[in-house]
Amino acid sequence: MPFKKLLEIVGDNAEAKAEISKLQANYTQLTNEVQGFESKINDLKQSRDKYKEKLALFKKSLKIEEGEELNEDTISKKLGNVKGEVKQEASEIEKALKAEIAELEKTIENLKNEYEEKIGETKKTLLDKEIDIQLFKNTAGINAVNAKAQNIIISELKKGLEFDENGNLVYKTKEGTTLRKDGVPMTLVQKLEEIKNSEDFSFLFKSEAQSGSGLKTGRNTGTGKTTSRLRQRALERGIALNV
Questions:
Q1: What are the pLDDT digits (tens) for 66-101?
Q2: pTM (global) more than 0.85
Q3: Which end of the chain lies in a sparser environment, N or C, as judged by fewer CB atoms within 10 Å?
């Protein structure tokens, strides 16, 4: 994770540095936990393999060929006049061993899922922090009409945003292609400008011209009020326009 790069970006901002240091400590702790998970998974795999070896030895002792089912007919054929108790015991042993193997494989899968979930949460936290830092350094503020509008803008900014192999923030399509503007990867600031100029989201931003009567959008009728279309978009999003 690019903690060193994040520290360089924030410069002398003590509050941001403290947040990044805390995040780095959490990431180190998670790394240790992941190593513990990997150790547990290896131990469980070894236990599973031992049970598989026991099952293989059991079949071998009955001279059961590879791919041959271990059932009553097979046991009767291999052992001839074997007593009913032996047949039952053999079937129960196989059933118990298979149940143990299935349980171990389930436990291994659960641990893998937990590990992947924690890694995903850490990456998301780091991505969110990087976005906050980039906004702090490279924009004069989102300038949304209210807090709810700002949350919607932030959500749009995060769509398709990922770290590339060099630890840089880039926008990617669902197919994994990097979005470009003027031949270079699109920046966070460029994406913000694109959202601001979008007909679908422009109403979330304060206009450059404001009066004491409230927000002016630039799409006014002769009476100086916002268009009905803009009002409708705001209402659909639950955004109160002070007009």
A1: 777 767 777 667 666 455 666 677 788 888 888 888
A2: no
A3: N
pLDDT above 90 covers a percentage of the chain that reads 5
What is the three-class DSSP state of 101?
A: helix
Please say whether the beta carbons of 196 and 202 come within 8 A: yes
> Which of 138, 153, 177 is a domain's end point?
138
Whole-number Å distance between alpha carbons of 97 and 22: 46
In the numeric block, which tokens belong to residue 241?
A: 């326009």
Helix, strand or coil, per DSSP, at residue 162 = strand
Q: How many CB atoms lie within 10 A of CB 47?
A: 15
Q: Give the pLDDT mean for 19-41.
A: 82
Question: What is the maximum span of the chain, computed from C-alpha positions, in angstroms?
Answer: 103
Closest CA to 111 of 50, 35, 53: 35
Say yes or no: 171 and 116 in one domain: no
76 shares a domain with 15: yes
Are residues 64 and 113 part of one domain? Answer: yes
Q: Using CA atoms, how far apart are residues 97 and 11, in angstroms rounded to an integer?
A: 60
Contacts of 119 (CB under 8 A, 6+ apart): 30, 34
d(CA 72, CA 3): 63
Round the CA-based radius of gyration of the chain to a whole number and report it.
Answer: 31
Identity of the residue numbered 124: K
3-state secondary structure of 59: helix
Give the SS3 label for residue 220. strand
Q: How far is CA 154 from the centre of its chain?
A: 17
CA distances from 179 to 160, 182, 196 (A): 9, 10, 18
